Each structure stands twice: as C-alpha cells, then as structure tokens.
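@channel sequence for tomorrow's demo:
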Amino acid sequence: MEKTKRHLAIKQILNSQVIKTQFELANALRKEGFKTTQATLSRDMKELGIALVRTPEGTRYVLNPEREEDRLTSIITMEIEDIVFNETTIVIKTLPGRAQGVAEVIDRINLSSVLGTIAGDNTVLVIPASIKKIRETIKDLEKILTKAK
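structure tokens (generated this afternoon):
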C-alpha cells in the first residue's frame, strides 16, 4: 500500500514540477510525507519507467508515456469481449462492470481519431472524430486494445 501511494506521489510530482535529480525528487517526496532511500527511489523510478530527457531548459525526469500506455492497454485487453461498429458508431463490449475503465484508458491515450467515449456497465460507445474515417478509428482502437493479446 505504501509503495502504491509513493508511486502515485512520484507521478504527481513529475507532472507538476521540473525535477532534475533524484535528490530533488527525494526532497519533494519528503515534503509529501514519504521517507525513502536512494535505492528504493531508483527501483520506483525503474518500475514507473521514468526517464531523464534533454529539454531546451536542460535535463529533467519524465514519466515514459509509452510505458504507461502499454501498461494500461495490457490491463484492459483482458476486459474486452468484442468491438462492433456501423457507419457512424463504434461499440466495445466488455466484461460486466469494466466499461468505465476501458473508456478511461481510451480517453487517456488521447487518440486523434476518437472524439470521446461514453461508458455503461459492459458497453463503451466510442465516438469517432470523423465518420468518414471510421475504419481508421477502428484500426487505431484495435491496434491499442489488442496489443497485449
């Protein structure tokens, strides 16, 4: 439980502050009430896929968006039963109670071909950005939603 909370705090810190060193990250965690060793912090950073990148302002730590996307899609692939569509709409059938999680992942991935999603209990309505490109939208969804299968 402590590890999960610490990981969440690390993500929030990296999304809201420019962190250039592990020392700065450790200090930011301390301010949030987490005491951690350098070894633990290094393991956390590896598990979260945190990378040191160069920017015009210098180097900084960032969450690896590809790794986060891969993690999310690998979870939801087990929850999807079918993807069906017509000329204007895409519907994703999920296990009972899983539609909201699947919709959240699709929204987070932020595909340019998807305007938005609406979730029920076991059904996600996917609204394509353009019905003229619905086949492209379906291919995009199938690519990410079947990545880990």
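heads up for whoever presents: The mean pLDDT is 87.
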